[in-house]
Amino acid sequence: MRHYLGVQLNIEGLELIDPRQTYLIVPLHEGFADLLALPEIPLKMRYVARDELFQEWKLLGPFLRDTGQIEVWPEAGVKSYRQLLRQAGSVFAAGESLVIFPQGTILGIESDFSAGAFALARYFKQPILPVVLTGSHRVWEFPYSPLLRYNQRMNLRVLPPLSVEEVLATPAEELHQKVQQQLKSVALSGGVVSPRHFVPARDGYWDGYVYRIDPNFPELAADIQQHRDSVVGY
């Protein structure tokens, strides 16, 4: 166990990482406190982050720009992905790994992965490093709660990497489904700290934000779709 600001972090699977290799790293995502755990991965890394973190956070935004993190605009669709392609190449060329949160949101475990991260791995011929990361929502559940909680438990479990050969032999959508199933199966197994769950009655529906619900959660997916159908101009 490692301790940071009272956080009890259980770390598993680091021995699966080749420190000489660059990876496309795909962790589950629950909030800002994920950054208490991810630096434990023994690789040089840069992160892909939403535009609002660069534009709306007065201290964080300049830090992200100054440290060369990559800005994306999920609501811009293909335009944002093309910008990501232009920037990601320089990260791998510099011998760094790239962290992309394929859920693209901190709503909860029910959020569906995007295939974009997996298409990126195929394009740049990078192995994929799946990372189960749970419990960070207990530390700071921003923007749902302003409370900072101490002495919380988190888990970081690295799963076996997918080789370049496997990545290139598998279509991006199949990679998306395979890695999503692996990560969420572990997160929901009871063997790690429980992940965050998305409850619209509590969290809101986040109209205007791009996100999808994993089809493996059909009741929530139906709830979201019914809400969207009721919103004029959605």
Protein described:
The chain is an alpha/beta fold. The chain has a single domain, classed as Glycerol-3-phosphate (1)-acyltransferase, CATH 3.40.1130. It is built from nine helices and eight strands. A hairpin with a 2-residue loop joins strand 1 and strand 2. Helix 4 crosses helix 7. The longest helix has 16 residues. The chain is globular and about 50 Å long. The mean pLDDT is 89.
Tell me the number of strands: 8
Question: How big a fraction of the residues is strand?
Answer: 15-25%
CATH homologous superfamily title: Glycerol-3-phosphate (1)-acyltransferase
What proportion of the residues is helical, as a percent range? Answer: 25-40%
What integer is the average pLDDT?
89
Task: Give the helices and strands as they follow along the chain.
Answer: EEEEHHEHEHEHEHHHH
In short:
The protein has helices at 51-55, 60-66, 78-93, 116-124, 136-139, 164-169, 172-187, 200-203, 218-230, and strands at residues 2-4, 7-12, 24-27, 45-50, 70-72, 97-99, 128-134, 153-158. The protein is an alpha/beta fold.
Question: What brief labels describe this structure?
Answer:
single chain; 8-stranded mixed beta sheet; 8 strands
Q: SSE layout and pairings?
A:
Layout: E1 2-4, E2 7-12, E3 24-27, E4 45-50, H1 51-55, H2 60-66, E5 70-72, H3 78-93, E6 97-99, H4 116-124, E7 128-134, H5 136-139, E8 153-158, H6 164-169, H7 172-187, H8 200-203, H9 218-230
Parallel strand pairs: 2-8, 3-6, 3-7, 4-5, 4-6
Antiparallel strand pairs: 1-2, 7-8
